[in-house]
Specification:
Helix content: 25-40%
Number of strands: 8
Structural class: alpha+beta
Radius of gyration: 20 Å
CATH architecture of the largest domain: Up-down Bundle
Order of helices and strands: EEEEEHHHEEEHHH
Largest sheet: 5 strands, mixed, barrel
Strand order of the largest sheet: 1-2-3-5-4
Length: about 250
């Protein structure tokens, strides 16, 4: 076994024995890992509050050479996740970030930009006036960092630049990975017709330099279209509906 150090975000924990727990962590250095924290349930334990859900911590662990659980030997809090009681939307949003990391990343597949994005998003959701925009920003960039980012600039069929049809609408093919032009649209399934404003919002959110808050009020139609596209993209990739999806409608824009 080798001793490793990492910065980690706690995704979930569950009981292993009367005194120990298994912690699922997303680390900057190693990606997702599962560790056994011996004695973590005892009143006096070596991990203090470092294994609380969504805590950012610095860890030391023994990496097993087999597929068994790694052994956590040290964990120190860098930042605890705390929200005010009235900020339930921020709490739900942070739970959703953890759910996506747990479900759609692989063990020992490090992705430092994704870790940084997740840690930044979770920290911001503790006191975020526009959590719905922040979550949408996370989802678009999460998809891109995993290699599943949709094409918004050119048609997935012919490669031509996406242009508005009469009436200012563009078409998004969910199962084909992005926009389709009028010539390539026939015969494709699950194609959504979106307003030009929704398309501009998607482009803005997918940019790594996307603002943490919208620079103007998002119209209800655009909110609905954005949420619809993202919900279906995530469900298609995951193969099922995430548990936290039903709470996303509560998040203010």
């Amino acid at each position: 076994m080798s001793t490793e150090k990492a910065v980690a975000l706690v995704l979930r924990t569950h009981d292993f024995s009367e005194s120990s727990v298994v912690a699922h962590l997303y680390t900057r250095e190693f990606g997702k890992i599962r560790v056994l924290a011996k004695g973590a349930k005892r009143p006096k334990n070596p991990f203090d509050f470092a294994l609380d859900l969504l805590t950012l911590c610095r860890i030391v662990f023994l990496r097993k050479s087999t597929e068994g659980l790694d052994l956590l030997t040290e964990a120190k809090v860098l930042r605890r996740f705390r929200v005010e009681r009235e900020n339930l939307p921020g709490l739900y949003g942070a739970y959703y970030v953890a759910e996506l990391l747990q479900a759609l990343t692989h063990d020992y597949d490090p992705n430092p930009p994704l870790f940084d994005l997740a840690a930044e998003t979770v920290a911001a959701l503790q006191n975020q006036p526009h959590p719905a925009w922040r979550i949408a920003r996370f989802e678009w960039q999460f998809l891109d960092l995993l290699g599943h980012g949709p094409s918004l600039e050119v048609c997935v069929g012919c490669g031509e630049r996406m242009e508005q049809e009469g009436g200012g609408r563009l078409h998004f093919a969910l199962h084909d990975g992005g926009g389709v032009c009028p010539r390539c649209r026939p015969g494709r399934r699950s194609v959504l017709s979106l307003t030009a404003e929704t398309w501009r919002a998607m482009r803005a959110l997918s940019s790594p330099s996307a603002e943490a808050s919208p620079d103007h009020e998002i119209p209800p139609l655009v909110r609905g279209e954005l949420r619809g596209v993202l919900n279906q993209l995530i469900c298609h990739l995951l193969g099922q509906r995430p548990r936290m999806h039903e709470y996303l409608a509560m998040l203010p824009w």
